[in-house]
Structures are given as C-alpha cells and as structure tokens.
Amino acid sequence: MKVLITGGAGYIGTHCLVELMQAGLVPVVLDNLCNASPDALARVEQITGQQPIFIEGDIRDHRALELAFQAHRPSAVLHLAGLKSVGESVDKPLEYYDNNVVGTLQLLRTMREFDCHRMVFSSSATVYGDPATLPIAEDAPTGGTTNPYGTSKYVIERILQDWAAADSEAQVIALRYFNPVGAHASGLIGEDPQGLPNNLMPFIQRVASGSLERLNIFGDDYDTPDGTGVRDYLHVVDLAQGHLAALQRMEQPEAEGFHAVNLGTGNGISVLQMVKAFEAASGQAVPYSIAPRRPGDIASCFADARHAQEFLGWQARHTLESMCSDAWRWQQFAESRT
Ligand code: NAD
Ligand code: UD1
C-alpha cells in the first residue's frame, strides 16, 4: 500500500515512516521542511535500510499535491503536516489557520480529484479543552479550545466529519494524541525543538544534559496528588504504531465514515513524577524551581484508551522508564551533532 505522509520529515512523521516501512508499506513523504531537515530522513534510512521517497512541497500548493498524487497514486494519506506551537499560534492566528486549515482543504480537494478516500489525521487531546470528567473518552464534548492551534485541530475535525458524511467511500480516523514523548530506541531520530522548548519533556532533557540550568515547574497547587500538572505521556513509537493500526483498520469492514480515537496510555503522570523518572533513567540530576501556573494550563488530562483497543486493536506498550531512557539517548545524540 502506498501512503502519502504529509509532514513526514517531522518528529512524529519520521517515527511513522519507520513503522510503516518495517511493515512493508510504501510511504511517500511530502514536507515543506519548515520544521524539519532532510537529515532526519537520512537517519530513517539508517534505521530501516531503505530510502524513503521524499517530495519537498507545501500542502497549500495545489500543483505540488497534484504532482505527488499523479506520480504515486497513494491509496491513503497520513496527514501530519501542520504548525504546532500553542504560544506562537496566539501571536500568529492567521498563519496557523492558513497552514493547518487551508492546507487540509487543499489536500482534501486533491484527494477527491485522485479518488483517494482514506485519511488518518493528527488531531490532539487539545480538542477536549478543559475536560469535565477523567479519563477522557471520545464522546466527551469537544470545541472548548483556548488557542488558535487547538481551534485549528477542532475545525479540521469538523471539516473531516462533513467530508466523510458527503462521500460514502470516505474513511477518516482522527487520532487524538495525548502527550507524545521519547524517541526511537536507536537514538537516531527524535524531537529537537529550536530555541527554548515549550513542552515539558524536551525541557527536562536539556536540563539533564546541562544545556539548560533548571526546570520551572508551572504550579504545585493544582488539585492533583502532588499538586503538579498531570498528563498522559505516550511513547512516540507506540504513537507511530497507532497510525499503522489505523491504516490496517481501514482495510477491514465498517471503517467508513469519521472515527475519532484517543491515543494515550490511560495513565496520568505528574510533572514531579516525570522529573524523578527522568533522573532515574538518565542518572542525571534535574534541578527545578516551582514557578507560577502557566496561563491556559489545566490540572489533569488523561485518556480513556479503551476505544483504541476495541476499534484499532492498539494499546500503548512502552513504559515511562523507556520513554525517558530513549529520550535521553536521543538527547545525547542530538547534542553530539552540534
Ligand atoms: P513537527 O513540526 O515535527 O512535524 C510537522 C511537519 O510538518 C514538519 O516536518 C513540518 O516541516 C511539516 N509542515 C508544516 N507545515 C507544512 C506545510 N504547509 N506543508 C508541508 N509540510 C508542512 O511536529 P510533530 O510533533 O511531528 O507533529 C505532527 C502533527 O501532530 C502535527 O499536525 C501536530 O499538530 C500534531 N500533534 C503533535 C503533538 C505533539 O505533541 N508533538 C500533539 C498532538 C498533535
Ligand atoms: C501542550 C500544548 C497542547 C499540545 C500538547 C502536545 C500548551 C499550553 N499546550 O500540552 O496544546 O496538544 O502540548 O504535547 O502548550 N510544564 C512545566 N514546565 C515546563 C513545561 C511544562 O511545569 O517548562 C508542565 C505543564 O504545566 C504541564 C506539563 O508540564 O502540566 C506538560 O506540559 P507540556 O509538555 O507543555 O504539554 P501540555 O501543556 O499538556
């Protein structure tokens, strides 16, 4: 099966590439490299022994999409391309809606032209906003988003629902990721954000390596067991395998229409628990200070992961220890290159 992976050169995309190639699928990457480098694709080749097909192009460029579809005739699309920084989206809402929403519309238009009806979409637990109940199941209310990034994911889900309703052959699985962390066990691919990291795990990695002095923990007065924020951290290789399971599910009966599926472990981990786990896995100290709450943060967020098991036959398998040790191996590799 040939699969177009938009955003396939990025953090999650490269891990999906490895899983798809190892399962015998033929992925075709379309990426404009706005947040990725071709080096990552070379390292995917090192891991898999096969060179991924790569097209440098933008999902908003209809001609580039047409050429990609003409040349490769993919039977499904993994749609990962997008801008993903919450803070930046508040400052640049139009860029976020243009890239994420307009880009998705161009992609759907091209899929229709080329008779391609299958899409797996990178959605996010952010579509649930501040959840009323935990764990969060897929039928929980969506749309209470608090920033343009989150709203772009919500709007895209709505567009995909309407598309699926209008095309009886359409198959859409929106994967609502919880908090992807970690790296491939080879240590060759992972997340290497430019500048100061916004997210917890990359920040901890850089404190452990000594390139940042200390972690600010945003609040220790939440209504959680130790007062710090609780999230559902998920190993990126499990996440990538969830994409493979979604593609395989589309080959089976009753996959038509729009389906939202949580990808999480179902376990809530606090910031302090993550710091301790990382210290144990890396053997390094992670000094921290308690800082004020970060605006827009919620106390707790973790998945009801049962639907993924029932509908996709998928569940997360990696431990918190392996999330930390794989992230640490990658951090050391990433820093050795600079
Ligand atoms: P990433 O930035 O590493 O990967 C996104 C890729 O898309 C990059 O390689 C970038 O160059 C490419 N891209 C962006 N705009 C493009 C465009 N217009 N045309 C072509 N390529 C474009 O991010 P990631 O962490 O791998 O995330 C992948 C997807 O998953 C994103 O849609 C993101 O919103 C979503 N997601 C990520 C997380 C997370 O924590 N990483 C959580 C929930 C959802
Ligand atoms: C963030 C995004 C969310 C996105 C998700 C993807 C924000 C506000 N939300 O979620 O839209 O879908 O990433 O993974 O950016 N923390 C610290 N110190 C830090 C960084 C984080 O204490 O330096 C805490 C946070 O307060 C939170 C936890 O660590 O309790 C996780 O934060 P983060 O990794 O940024 O993820 P989310 O906020 O869950």
Structure description:
This protein has about 350 residues and is α/β, with parallel strands linked by helices. The chain has helices at about 10-20, 40-50, 60-70, 85-90, 95-115, 150-165, 200-210, 235-250, 270-280, 305-310, 320-335; strands at about 1-5, 25-30, 55, 75-80, 120-125, 170-175, 180, 215-220, 230, 235, 255-265, 270, 290, 300. The strands form 4 sheets. It has a 7-stranded parallel beta sheet with strand order 3-2-1-4-5-6-11, with helices on both faces. Strands 12-9-14 form a 3-stranded mixed beta sheet. A two-stranded parallel ribbon has the order 7-10. The longest helix is centred in the N-terminal third of the chain and has 21 residues, at about 95-115. The radius of gyration is 19 Å and the shape is globular. The model has no long low-confidence stretch (mean pLDDT about 95). Uridine-diphosphate-N-acetylglucosamine (UD1) binds near residues 126, 216, 271, 294 and 296.
The major beta sheet can be summarized as: 7 strands, parallel
Rg on CA atoms, Å:
19 Å
List how many beta strands DSSP finds. Answer: 14
On the 0 to 100 scale, the average pLDDT is 97
Uncertain regions spanning at least 5 consecutive residues: none
Hetero compounds: nicotinamide-adenine-dinucleotide, uridine-diphosphate-N-acetylglucosamine
Cα distance spanning the termini: 37 Å
What's the helical proportion of residues?
A: 40-55%
| Inertia-based shape | globular
Biggest sheet: strand arrangement? 3-2-1-4-5-6-11
Strand content: 15-25%
Per DSSP, the total helix count is 11
Topology as a string of helices (H) and strands (E):
EHEHEHEHHEHEEHEEEHEEHEEHH
Structural class: alpha/beta
